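Recap for those who missed Tuesday's class. We walked through two folding examples back to back. For each one, the amino acid string is listed first and its predicted C-alpha cells come directly after. Nothing is annotated here on purpose, so try labeling regions yourself before you check the end of the notes.
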Amino acid sequence: MDNNFFKNIEKKTGVNMKDVFELANSLQNANFKDEKTVRNVIRRVSQIAHKPVNKEMEDKIVKSIVNDGKQLDFNTISKMLNKK
C-alpha cells in the first residue's frame, strides 16, 4: 500500500501504524485461550489506541474472549472500549 495512506491514518487517528503492524504480527500465533496472553493483547491495544482500560473492563473483555470464545480482533476490542 501507499506510504501516504498510512501517514494519513496516523494523522487522523494518532495511532502509529508501525505499532499496529507489530501487534498484528504478534497475534498470528497467539493462544487466545490463555488469559495472560489475552490481557497482554488488551493492554497493548489500549496503549496503541491511547484508550485506558480499567480492571473491570479488562476482565469483561478477557471473559468474553477466553471463556465465551469471541474472536479477538481490533473491531471487537474497539466496540468493547467504546461501550465504557
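Example two. Treat it independently of the first, because the proteins are unrelated.
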Amino acid sequence: MTPNPAAPASSRELLIDGRPLRVFDGLLPNVGEYVQGLARAMFTRTEFARPETAEHKHWATEIKLEALMRQPIFEVTHLAVGGFAGPGFGYRPYRAYTNVASYGDMLFTHTDCLPDQHDLTALWYLCERWDLEWGGETMFYDAQDEIACAVRPQPGRLVVFDGAIKHVGRPPNRICYAPRYTFAIKFERVAIGGA
C-alpha cells in the first residue's frame, strides 16, 4: 500500500492478520476545546457492541455528517485516512459519534465491518490529560483472539484501523475520575475515477 504523500506521518503502524492499524500523535493541538464541548453534550445510553450484547448499552452521542465535515478535526482525519487509499479507491465517511466510558462500565469486543468490506475506523482520544494508571486502552485482537496491540489514550491521539479488526475499548480504572471520550468516524471504501 503506497501512502498518500499528503497524509501525516504515523507514530506507530502495524498489520494485524494483514489488516492495517496506524497511530497518529500531535495532530490536534486544540483538543481541550473538544473536551469542553463534550462536557456539555447530550449522551444517551443507546450504543452496544454486538447484537448479543444489546442489553448492555453504553453512552454515545451522534454527530451529523454535514456538521462533522465543517469541523477542522474532519480535515485532519481525512488526510490520515487518505494514506490508506490505493489506486482506484478512496474512503467516504458514513457515521460519526462519540462514546463516553467511566469506571464500572462494561464494553465488549466487536468489529466495525465485515472482513471483505475493508472499511476504516478513525478513533480519536479526546482528553486534556491521561495517566498511564488510569487504563482505558483500546485492545486489538488477532484471528486467534490474542491481544495483538493495545493503544492507550493520549490527548488528541488518533488511531486509524481496518474495521474488521476485533477490538474493545476498556473503561477507566477505579482511580480515574475523568471521562474516557472516544470520537469515532467510520469510513467506507469506495471506487473513484471510474475504477
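Answers for example two:
The first helix runs from residue 31 to 39.
The chain has one domain: 12-190.
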